[in-house]
Specification:
The protein has 497 residues and is mainly alpha-helical. It is built from 19 helices and four strands. The C terminus is likely disordered.
Length: 497
């Protein structure tokens, strides 16, 4: 058996362990025979009511009982009796999609964060009935084949989520960023304002963060301002640091050196904090390396990110005052609260929703597998119920394809919206998307799966009804033949008394 997520990998086996336990209890207590006895008794009563001849009643009862017993035995044999053994070693975590698209191959479940859950069920063996093993295998095969037809694209929303939640965990580095903002970025913005230089729209966007290319390349800014306190990573240089006190704890690098120097500059140290899988995903995009590096650094050094990293305010927004007043702070906080309330009442957080939906899928699959013995028992081993549950299992498994399709569509929409915006690559600077985008995402991640499950459920019910009708037709055709044969053996017709 295969699984498309870590949680499914463990919960499917757990579901079959529960399934086996329930079925063993049913067989040990003899409850499995009760529905069959009730059906046979109801057939006997129905035959007595419909037949005017006692001999006919016996023939009808015998024929109906035979059909019921045969069908029930087939259902029990193929859908209830566990025959094929599975354990955690036979479960397979599907990584074909990752290999197909040259993504980073996920770690095996035993090496993931779900390792404690895997260890809880390791060493335990479950058994699966033939029918459900076949349904699971075919459903997974169809799902994998359908997923393979989608073009390979990195998950931009997940990529953006990971970038936005890359924290600067080192307190010293966070403090150094604050010092850089106060000693380099703030004076440069003040000088730019004093000189009243006319900037283009792209230049205005560029000077909106501390790693601005404009401040790095134009004279009189980062090449002029320098650190006001010694920095241990840079030695004291008499020519550069003339007139500054040599404490022996380092030199006073220019702001350009402080930001750009290889290995010791702020830029290189911040880039080193980004996870390798983020770089791998960005390399698959058609953007210039400098563009997406700058976009990541803009996000990491944003006031929102640094505040979250060290639980304190470092510097104000890019377009605001470097030393905010109380009024500015109240206005900023009020806007944040309003945006939060809008997001709460409109739609849930989609980054969290996209993570939760596959987990809910795995839980529902486990619940369905665990309930199969009871559902089959309560239906009196009805083939109609078996077909309906079969379609339900296929529908739940095939949801993995819909998740991949919605991710692909979401990525395409993000590329269309932000493809030409190098300052806000894939919307990294966004704390949320527009209202229209949220409605589209709501349709893809909520409405589409609900529509699919509804359609498959309807198809399963209709197919079950058709099969039930076929069985009744066969029984109806067989009964007159048995009755005529019985009548001829006794030598009387229907008109005789």
């Amino acid at each position: 058996m295969t699984a498309h997520s870590y949680l499914e990998y463990t919960l499917i086996l757990l579901g079959w362990l529960i399934n086996n336990g329930i079925w063993n209890t049913i067989t040990a207590t003899g409850l499995f025979a009760l529905p069959l006895l009730f059906r046979l008794f109801s057939l006997w009563l129905k035959a007595r009511e419909q037949s005017s001849n006692k001999n006919d009643a016996g023939a009808l009862t015998l024929t109906g009982m035979e059909n019921t017993v045969y069908v029930s035995l087939l259902v029990i044999m193929f859908t209830c009796i566990p025959l094929l053994n599975i354990d955690i070693t036979t479960m397979k975590y599907d990584i074909q999609r990752s290999k197909q698209c040259n993504f980073s191959v996920p770690a095996i479940p035993e090496q993931s964060g779900y390792a404690p859950l895997v260890s809880d069920i390791s060493g335990k063996t479950a058994s699966v009935p033939i029918w459900w093993y076949l349904v699971h295998t075919l459903s997974k095969g169809i799902t994998t084949a359908a997923t393979a037809t989608l073009p390979c694209k990195p998950d931009l929303r997940q990529l953006r989520f990971d970038i936005q939640h890359t924290r600067i965990s080192a307190p010293l580095l966070s403090q150094e960023l604050l010092d850089f903002a106060q000693e380099c970025y703030a004076p440069s913005r003040v000088r730019l304002k004093q000189r009243e230089i006319a900037l283009t729209e792209s230049e205005i966007n560029d000077v909106g963060w501390m790693g601005s290319r404009w401040f790095l390349t134009q004279s009189g800014y980062y090449d002029t301002f320098h650190a006001r306190s010694p920095r241990p990573a840079w030695p004291y240089e008499h020519e550069r640091d003339a007139g500054l006190f040599n404490s022996g704890n380092g030199g006073y690098p220019t702001c350009k050196q402080w930001w750009s120097d290889a290995d010791r500059g702020l830029r290189s140290r911040l880039i080193a904090l980004v996870k390798p899988e983020i770089w791998q995903g960005l390399r698959q995009l058609t953007y210039n390396r400098n563009d997406y590096e700058e976009a990541i650094l803009r996000t990491m050094t944003s006031p929102r990110n640094i505040t979250a990293s060290q639980s304190g305010t470092t510097y104000s927004g890019y377009g605001g005052n470097v030393d905010p007043t109380l009024i500015n702070q109240i206005t900023h906080n009020t806007g944040s609260v309003i945006n939060m309330l809008k997001s709460f009442f409109l739609f849930p957080t989609y980054d969290s929703l996209r993570q939760a939906l596959p987990m809910m899928q795995a839980i529902l699959l486990m619940a369905l597998v665990a309930s199969i013995p009871l559902v089959t028992l309560f239906s009196a081993y009805s083939p109609k119920t078996v077909i309906t549950v079969t379609f339900a299992q296929f529908g739940l498994i095939f949801l993995s394809f819909w998740w991949e399709l919605t991710r692909w569509l979401d990525t395409s929409l993000l590329e269309l919206m932000y493809g030409n915006d190098t300052q806000n690559l894939i919307g990294m600077q966004n704390s949320g998307d527009g209202l229209l985008m949220q409605f589209v995402l709501g349709t893809m991640f909520i409405v589409l799966p609900v529509f699919w499950i509804g359609a498959v459920s309807w198809a399963g019910i209709q197919t079950g009804n058709s099969l039930d009708g076929i069985l009744k037709t066969v029984q109806t055709n067989v009964t007159p033949k048995m009755r005529n044969k019985k009548q001829s053996s006794y030598g009387y017709d229907d008109d005789e008394n």
